Amino acid sequence: MGVDLYYSYQQRVAESRKELENLSIIIESNVLATLSKIDVVISETAYTFGPMVDGRKKLALLEANQELLRRMAYIPEAQALSLRVINADGRVVFNAGETAELPNVVVADRAYFLRHKSDPNAGLVLSEAILSRFTGKWLLTLSRRMVDAEGNFAGVVQAALRTEYFQGLFELVNVGADDSISLLDENKRLLARHPPRLDAVGQQFDQLAVVMHFPSDPSAISYRRGAGIDGVDRHYVIRNIGAYPYVLVVGRSSEAIRSLQQGKIYLYVVCYFCLALAFACFLWVYVRHQQELEKLATTDSLTGLKNRRIFDSTLEFMMARRVRNSFSERLSVALFDIDHFKMINDTRGHLKGDEVLRRVANVIRCRVRKTDLSCRWGGEEFIVLLNDCDIEQAIVVAENIRSAIADESMSYPDDGFRVTISAGVAEVAEGDTVDSLVKRADDALYQAKASGRNRVCR
C-alpha cells in the first residue's frame, strides 16, 4: 500500500505539473497578445511622430494629443492616457489626452530611456516594475526608439501597462486557495502576484530558492519545489514569457496535491472543464471586443461603408501590387458627390440629409462587385475602388450608379425634390500616386459639377 500511495502521489504531482503547465500557456498567450498589440501601436506611433519631434512635420499639440488618445482605443489594456512621445532630453512633448496639457516630468534617468539612447538596436524595451512619477502606481513600460532624419536618437515612444492588469488577468483564472501565480522580471523583481502581495511588488527575490535559476531557453519549462514568498511549500512551473524579459511562476501547494488523492475523479474533470470554459468565455469576449474595435476603426457609422482610412491603405496596396505585376492590372476609381446636398440639409434638415446619405450609400453598395471597395470619402462624397477595371468600364459602373440614384426610387415627391449625384472617374496610370490618382478623379468630378451636375466625367 505504501508503494501504491507513493506512486499515486507521484502521479498526482505529474498531473498537477501538467495542469500548471497548461495554465501557464493560457496566461502566457494572453500576456503575449497584449504586449504584441501594444508594440504595434508604439511602433506605428514612433514612425508617425518621429518627424514631428525633430521638426520635419508640424502638428498642433492639442491635435497630436488627441491623435494619441484615438490610438489608445486599440489598446484598452494599457494604462489610460499613457501613450506619450518623449524627446531626446527626456521630456514629454506629446501625451494622449483631450487637452494640450503635458506632464511636467523628466524621464532621462530611467533605465529604458538610457537603453534607447545608447543602443540604436534596442528594439522594443520593456522595463522592470516602476513606481510611476505620473500616477504613483506600479507599472511597467513598453517603449521604442525614435530617430531624426540623420538616424540619430530623437527620443522614445512609450506606453504603460499597470501591474494591476496582470493582477486582474490572474484573478480570472480558477486556482486553489493556496495556489499562486507570479510574474517576475529577468532580475527576479516581482511585477504581479495572485493572491495579491502589493507590498512585495518591485522587490527582488534573487535569494529565493524557487526562482534562483530561471530557464535559459525561452521555450523551456522548469519545475521546482520549495517555499514561496509567503512560506507555503508548493510545486512550481516556471516559464519565460516568449522572448520578453519576464518569467511566469505558477505554483500549487503540496498540501493541495496530497488532498487531490482523496477527491473524486469527476470533480477534477468538472473543475478542469470549468477552467477551460472560463478561459473560452474570456477569449470569446476578447475576440468580440477586438472585432468591435476593428469595426469602429474601419467603418463609417452612418452609412455602413468602409471609411477613408481603409480606402487609402487598400488603394496603396493595390497600386504597389500593380507595380510588382509589371502594370498588368487595370485599376480605376470613381468619386461621387451628392448634388446640392447643403441645400437638402438647410431646407429639409439633417435627419433628411442623413437618410439621403444612407440611401445613396446603399445604391452604391448594391451596384459594385464584391471585389470592388466602396467607401464614404467624407461629407456628401463617396468613392469606389474598381479592381481590374479600365476607364471605360469604370464610366459604365459610375453611370449605372448615377442613373439609379436619379431614378424615381430616389425621389421625394412629398418634398418636391430629387436626389442626383455627379461623378468623376480616373484610371491608374504609370507614375501615379494615391494622391495624384484621387486628384484626377476630383478634377473630373469638378468638371461634372461645372457642366450642370447629374453626370459622369473622366
Automatic annotation (TrEMBL):
Membrane-crossing segments per the record: 265-287
Keywords assigned by UniProt, alphabetized: Cell membrane, Membrane, Transmembrane, Transmembrane helix
Classification via SMART domains: GGDEF
Name of the top EC class for this enzyme: transferase
Subcellular location: Cell membrane
Membrane topology: Multi-pass membrane protein
The UniProt record lists the keyword Transmembrane: yes
Domain GGDEF per the UniProt entry, residue ranges: 329-458
Annotated PROSITE patterns: GGDEF (PS50887)
Enzyme Commission code: 2.7.7.65
Swiss-Prot/TrEMBL catalytic activity: 2 GTP = 3',3'-c-di-GMP + 2 diphosphate
Cellular component GO terms held in the UniProt record: plasma membrane
Principal location: membrane
Molecular function terms from GO: diguanylate cyclase activity
One Pfam family, short name: GGDEF
Superkingdom, taxonomy of origin: Bacteria
Protein name: diguanylate cyclase
